Amino acid sequence: MKKLVLLSTVLITISFTGCKNQESILPSKKNIVEAVFASGNIIAENQYVVTSQADGYLNKSFVTEGDSVKDGQILFRIENDAQTEQLVNAEENYSYAVSNVSDNSSVLEQLMAQRNQVKNKLTTDSLNYIRYRKLVPSGAVSQVDYEKAKVSFENSKQDLVSLNHQISDTKQKLQLEVSKNKANLAVQQNISSFYEIRAEVDGVVFQIQKKQGELVKRGEPVAEIGSGKYIAKLFIVEEDINKLKPGQEVYIELNTEKNKSYKAYLSKIYPYFDNKEQSFIAEASFNEPISNLKSGTQLQANIKINEKADAMVIPAEYLLPGDFILDKKNGQVKVTVGIRTTEWVEILSGADDSTTILLSK
């Protein structure tokens, strides 16, 4: 029994000692600002990655980093021997097909010569037929000879018709070959255009990612180009995205200029979650141009979403989980909170400026 009483005394002593060591505060009035933190980097307003549309080796680079370029200007040339050969073959096949369509082509020239022979024979057979037809009544020629002359004339007429059809069909086939080879040439020319990488907008070459002679695969980045004013690309965590709206003030600190803040405003909020960045993305535009700003510069930003003058606040560490405080008189008390920052929490109800709040340890 004595041991039990002694133990209880020790526990009570420790309890009272703990209470004496607890810190306490009274709520105070402060101007408080609630902000959402975001990381990010500087980008150009119109910035894009130049990718290759074909496989090959980087044969020629026409630009260097920092160069200004125009829309449609050739930037790089990709070399591929197989594609070059296919283009040459397509050009030769098209030229050959076009040459075959002309009347003096070797294909048609032979048919034209045959037609001339048939025409000459038809003329002779026609004259013989007419002459024999006139001589039959007088008995100068036999009926048999007349019939032979007539058959020869009819055959010659049919031969000419057949040969004309053959020439017409041959021309159609040759014209079809021209069309087919012209289409194939257009395809090969279009494919070959993929081996010339051109700028899509006026801008500046920020970065070149491939060296001359290096292998380039289709879809692989080759360079990065940007134009327009510089803006801040911001990465927002999921729990904060619904607090944001365009026009909110943004205070940006660049990694190249520590302890200096630039004012901007939230200009765009993308309506989707970016799986690559594992965050939502927003953009902020600077109120004034900043000299020596460079694309890719890392930054930290605070987006102001709420502010209040003379708010009743307590230090954030005095607020317990579930929005409770440790009231010196009443123990744990539920409070209603407003603006929260990393340092302060606004108290809307549940405590007043006379409430002594203990720091729970």
What does this structure look like?
The chain has 361 residues and is of the alpha+beta class. Helices cover 34% and strands 37% of the residues. It has helices at 2-21, 81-101, 106-135, 143-193; strands spanning 24-25, 28-51, 56-61, 68-69, 74-79, 196-198, 203-208, 215-216, 221-236, 249-254, 261-274, 279-286, 298-315, 324-327, 331-334, 336-340, 344-349, 357-358. The chain is rod-shaped and about 155 Å long. The model is unreliable at 1-21 (pLDDT under 50).
Output mean pLDDT.
87
Strand content: 35-45%
Helix and strand element order:
HEEEEEHHHEEEEEEEEEEEEE
Question: Taking strands numbered 1, 2, ... along the chain, how are they ordered across the largest sheet?
Answer: 2-9-12-11-10-13
Apparent shape: rod-shaped
Q: Provide the structure class.
A: alpha+beta
Q: Would you identify the regions where 5 or more consecutive residues have pLDDT less than 50?
A: 1-21
Strand count, sense and barrel status of the largest sheet are:
6 strands, antiparallel, barrel
How many helical elements? 4
The counted number of beta strands is 18
Please give the share of residues in helix. 25-40%
Taking the alpha carbons of the first and last residues, their distance comes to 32 Å
Alpha-carbon Rg, integer: 46 Å
